[in-house]
Write a structure and sequence with these properties.
By secondary structure, the chain is α+β, with helices and mostly antiparallel strands. About 40% of the residues lie in helices and about 20% in strands. The protein contains 17 helices and 14 strands. A five-stranded antiparallel beta sheet has the order 4-5-6-7-8, sandwiched between helices. α4 packs across α5 and α10 packs antiparallel against α12. The radius of gyration is 32 Å and the shape is extended. It starts with 9 loop residues before the first helix and ends with a helix.
Length: about 550
């Protein structure tokens, strides 16, 4: 018998949701919701909203925030990443790798002896070291196949963008039983295998941690995610979960978008017929506290869409990256928040400079309406009739000389832009705004300038490892018996896999990072020219 620690009633879950909203609205001077909306506006370039500057002058934008963000996100995510799985307590020696290399080649080629050897391994009692090592290698290869299916590169890019703008990026992995795998449970291909993992990128505004002062996700007492879903989909899910019809009809659309992520979420059309649904995840411990299971429940206001169910995994299916950590807070801090004052000052100064130049080039015209009776425009070659003598004609129209504009003003603008970029770690060298005359010196300066980003980069790699561990947890607990798709240079083959045999393993994930190429084509040609001129390489090598 298990002790229930999570609230099952919809009203109680909505109270926990309201408590999470209260905590977020108290973060910072504006609250997490409003600050993140402002950050997103400034990042995309909408930087004059609410300034009340009128429309009679050009409002110039020099978006340094986006320039800094794009550079840092590209630098963090530019390296190719490979994930390798290993099981604790399993040896990994050179002799074992050579043995497995021959076995893998035989399995990929359909060799009968290799297949019989592997079947003998899987039919034994406890998995042997050679079997476990082979399966860990297969999971490492299968990770790449799954990454391609789920478009993990897009997920990484979107998560990094969320982390830069709002301070926190979150990926949610869930089991989708609607996915067709193309595999069958029997040789006659009559029983298709359905179900596989899916991933969603969540906005931090829509995720609520049970203990917002605790940074670790796996130690949270519960996690709630808020979503806007169509009423028809929610009712369909409720009927599939055998909910009573009166409760199904109680799921109605609402306009509760005030605390949803994104400024434009409030522009949801009424005809979309959506409702806010909360999904709560929690750990339900044994009575003696020796173990737990992960459970979840999905509710709307006053109605349960899906009653509590057991996920079957032993980890919360969430991976999180914080751009900048704050002690005693589960939610990260965004760099954009503290770049906005500089961005406002830059925009105002450039706008003033442009307006001053326009006033010098097109100064204010003063017209004596007693002498000039015709309409005066700026059309070239306009003939203006003047009533009176030549003295009257000289006094009919004159220009107001604008005050002198200091050249130091433009220098201050350039200095502010340069210092903002420099203090953010995005100087001219790393942004590529210098002539590549001395490639070695440029690369040395560039490497030095990128060192402060190593902490964020390491958090990003740890985030990738968390995703890999969650995927491995789903594979060993939800897959059962199915074949893993392995794609190699020689082709594609399938390895028989029984997740139940490896359920009790402690599987670790290690991210191996390959350095990205910092050389441009022009720099490569310069290097080749230099090597050829010094006769380090011959003509064939040069070509």
């Amino acid at each position: 018998m298990r002790q229930q620690t999570g609230g099952m009633l919809p009203d109680q879950i909505w109270e926990e949701y309201a408590a999470g909203i209260k905590f977020k609205t108290g973060l910072g001077s504006r609250g997490l919701y409003e600050q993140n909306k402002i950050n997103e506006r400034f990042y995309v370039g909408d930087q004059w909203q609410g300034a009340r500057c009128g429309s009679d002058r050009p409002l110039v934008r020099h978006n340094v925030i986006k320039r800094i963000g794009e550079y840092k996100m590209a630098l963090i995510g530019k390296n190719s990443v490979a994930v390798n799985f290993s099981a604790d307590g399993v040896a990994d020696t050179r002799a074992l790798r050579e043995q497995l290399k021959n076995l893998r080649a035989g399995l990929a080629g359909g060799d009968g002896r290799a297949i019989s050897q592997f079947q003998g391994m899987t039919e034994a009692g406890a998995p042997a070291e050679s079997e476990l090592a082979l399966v860990m290698q297969a999971l490492s290869d299968y990770y790449r196949v799954t990454s391609e299916r789920l478009k993990l590169s897009d997920i990484r890019e979107q998560t990094l963008r969320n982390a830069y703008i709002s301070g926190t990026g979150i990926v949610y992995t869930w089991w989708d039983d609607r996915i067709s795998t193309g595999l069958y449970a029997d040789d006659r291909r009559t029983t298709p295998i359905k179900g596989d993992i899916s991933c969603d990128v969540l906005d931090v505004e829509n995720v609520y941690f049970g203990d917002p002062n605790l940074d670790s996700i796996q130690e949270q007492p519960y996690i709630i995610i808020a979503q806007r879903l169509s009423v028809s989909d929610l009712r369909r899910e409720a009927r599939r979960c055998l909910r009573p019809e009166y409760e199904v009809q109680g799921i109605c659309s609402d306009s509760d978008t005030a605390y949803m992520a994104g400024e434009r979420s409030g522009g949801e059309p009424p005809e979309s017929g959506k409702a806010t649904v909360l999904t709560k995840f929690w750990k339900e411990w044994n009575r003696d506290g020796s173990g737990f299971v992960i459970k979840a429940v999905r509710v709307c206001r006053g109605a349960t869409v899906r009653p509590e169910w057991e996920l079957g995994i032993r980890l919360y299916p969430f991976a999180k990256i914080s751009w900048e950590r704050r002690r005693g807070c589960a939610y990260g801090e965004s760099e954009v928040t503290y770049l906005i004052p500089n961005q406002i000052a830059i925009n105002r100064m450039i706008t003033a400079s442009v307006w001053a130049v326009m006033m010098m080039g097109m100064p204010i015209m003063v017209v004596n309406s007693d002498i000039v009776t015709a309409e005066v425009t700026n059309d070239p070659g306009q003939v203006i009739p003047v009533c009176g003598s030549s003295e009257d004609a000289a006094a009919a129209i004159r220009y107001v000389d604008p005050p002198a504009f200091s050249s130091a003003f433009d220098e201050n603008i350039s200095s502010l832009i340069s210092n903002t970029l420099k203090q953010s770690g995005a100087n001219d060298v790393v942004l590529g705004d210098v002539r590549p005359d001395n490639t070695s010196a440029i690369m040395a300066v560039r490497e030095t300038a990128t060192l402060p980003l190593l902490s964020v980069q390491n958090r990003f790699y740890s985030f990738i490892e968390d995703i890999a561990r969650i995927w491995a947890e789903f594979w060993v607990t939800q897959y059962g018996q199915r074949r893993l798709k392995i794609r190699e240079d020689d082709g594609t083959w399938y390895l028989p896999f029984d997740g139940d045999r490896y359920r009790e393993l402690i599987i670790s994930a290690r991210v191996d990072v390959g350095a990205a190429n910092l050389w441009s084509e022009e720099q490569s040609i310069r290097t080749l020219d230099s090597l050829f001129d010094r006769k380090v390489i011959d003509a064939v090598q040069y070509l």
